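Section 5.1 Outputs to date
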Amino acid sequence: MTRLPNRPACTDIDAYNAARSPTDQEICTLLAELIDREFPEAERKIWHAHPVWFLDGNPVVGYSELKDSVRLLFWSGQSFDEPTLQPEGKFKAAEARYTSATQVRQDELVRWLSKARDIQWDYKNIVRRKGRLERLR
């Protein structure tokens, strides 16, 4: 994995990626590199067994290996107005799924990551608010 200057390795995410099949490993490594590049200030860690990036303690983007693909998830993605992101779950999350690293359109992902920075719902406090989301930005 290519490292950004002054950005230490996240060994938990590296270990997660390394434990995937070769095809999924390639997808996960590419996603991690692009997310790290666009969110150098983000906290990143394994959260609920998957790599997730946080801005100000709020989960923003992450990915996970599914049976037949790798799912890229944006917690506030339904608010991005992006037709290629599919709604996921009962809140504001949206996803894209990949079966090959060649399917990851970097220009599209960079645009989604920009929107993820600018459009956020407050998942950090969802339990305190008894399941009610509030828009942060």
